[in-house]
Structures are given as structure tokens and as C-alpha cells.
Amino acid sequence: MSTTSIKEVARHAGVSIGTVSNVLNRPDLVAPATRQRVLDAIGQLGYVRNDSARQLRAGRSRTIAIVVLDVANPFFADVVRGAEMEAEQAGGVVVVCNSGEDAARERRHLDILEEQRVQGVLITPVHDGPDSRLEQLISRGTPVVLVDRGSGHHHRCSVAVDDVLGGRLAGAHLVEQGHSRIAYVGGPASIRQVADRHAGAAAAIGTNGDLRLVETASLTVAAGRRAADEIADLPARERPTAVFCANDLLALGVLQEMTLRGLRVPRDIAIVGYDDIEFAAAAAVPLSSVRQPREQLGRTATQLLLEEVNDQDRHQHRHVVFQPELVVRESSSRQHRRRARANPAG
Asked: Are the C-beta atoms of residues 125 and 131 closer than 8 Å to each other?
């Protein structure tokens, strides 16, 4: 790290500290010959300006924070990628914080981010509903945008997907495939997306079948495997013939465990996930899934945040809702079920 000071640069170039500052921040105010002399001194001395100190003096950094529920989930990795692309175009950077679905950990992250005076915060909060810590951030002038979570509040933006519709798409598809005993795997139910996807599936299935709730403690592959164990242990006449999972990680866990238990997908049990992460199409049995525009969620949230940062007085808070899309693959396709029956050894 450079220890050369701006005072040394000024002395070496034979100019004032103010002139060096102008070369760094407002070069158009400095005569070309003088500007070049200062730049030569900077190069010779290896001076690197303390940009973070300058930004803190100005009261604002060029850093945007994004707080996600699970940094290991490829869905959030794609959301972060979208946020990074948008921030980089505006000359900023994104720092990622992982709450791990832990409200106390989320608050600690927000405390540190406020101390660092980040430009703003993108967040998928642990709990749905009023949050005093987020309200505090907003009241002190730090813009907040909810990501993958709708907001009824007029003083903050949000970017989300219509998860009730997503659940309807999955539920209707399974009914159309001839299933009447269907399990919904997801949890905790306190997560809005989990509850909305369940509600959508229940509405689509209606009186056409039975929807069994298998609640999980988390949205991970391991939790999906435990849920699959619970389903597979049911008597054959009660066992669901199809499973709709709240995300693809759960669905991949269900797929793994059902295969180990000797149940064939989709012949014995159909599976539909949610998010359509890259691993869904690459699974041993390609996974049907409800697709979300993951990178677009991150890009749009960052656009809204930067709009507010750049003009807080005239910024109009907006709530953007994207429409999901069902992608049907082998794990739930009636066509593949028929093919498996015709070729039992396959």
C-alpha cells in the first residue's frame, strides 16, 4: 500500500496541495502543463489516493450492499451478478452479506453497513413485515430496496416475482399431468415466497386433488432429502405421486433421495422446482421448474437504488413485479412417464 502523501506529490511537482487535489478530482480546472507535471509526480512517487477517505468526507461511498438469505444458493448468486453488472456501469461496486436466514445476523450486517456509509442497501429480509432496523436506515437517509420481496410501503422500492402465479403454474401443470395426490415441500412458512408459492399451488389444485404440506426448516438440498424421506415412508396408497418444491435446491434433494429409495422420476413420482437455476436443467433427471428472471431482479433493484441515490428529492418509489414462467422438463412430463411404462427396464 502506498505511503506517499498528497503533500509530497505537491512538493515534488512544485505546486500547492489544492492543485494536486484539482488534478485528481477536477482536472479541467488545471492548465495542461501543470496537470501533466502533477501526473508525472504521481507516477514517479507511486502515489495512490485514499478514495475511501475522500468518499467519507463527502458523506457517501460508491459501495452498494446486498444482503441475501443464503449466499450458497445459486438463485442469489445470479441476483448478485445482475446487481454487480448494473453497479459497475455506474462506477460502483457491490459487497455481499449473507444473513443465513438469521435475523440477528442480518441486523449486525446492517449496523456495519450503515457505519461504512454505503450508498444504499439491497436486501431480501429474513422476516416479512415491518422491520425497525430497515426503517431506521431509511429515516437516516440510506436508501433501501427489497429484492425478491414485495413491499406495501410507500417509502421504499421493491422488486419481486409474482410467486402466487408461480405456484399456480406448477400446481396446474401437475393436475394436467394427471396427479391428484401432490406434496408441497418448503419452509419455513414465515418466508413470504414459501407461503405465496404454496397458496398459488393450493388455488390451482383446488378440488382436483389433495395438497399435502411438508414443511422444511430451510431451503437446502439436505432439507429436500429429509422431506423426501418423509414422503417415501408413506404407504403407497397415500404417497403423493408428485412433489412441488419451494425452490430448486429442495427439488434436487428430493430427486436425489427418491432415486436412492428406488422411486423412479417421473414414472413413480413427478417433481417440479422453483427458480430454474443452472443445475435444474443439468440434473440426472432434468428438472421442471418455475423460472424467475434472476439477474434482471438484481439489475432492476440496483437501477431503482441508484435513481434514489442520485435524486432523492424527486425519486418516486416503485414496486416492480415480474411474471414467472414454467419450464417443463423430464422430471414432470407425462410424455416421459408414458415412455418409462413402455420400457420398464429403462
From this structure: yes
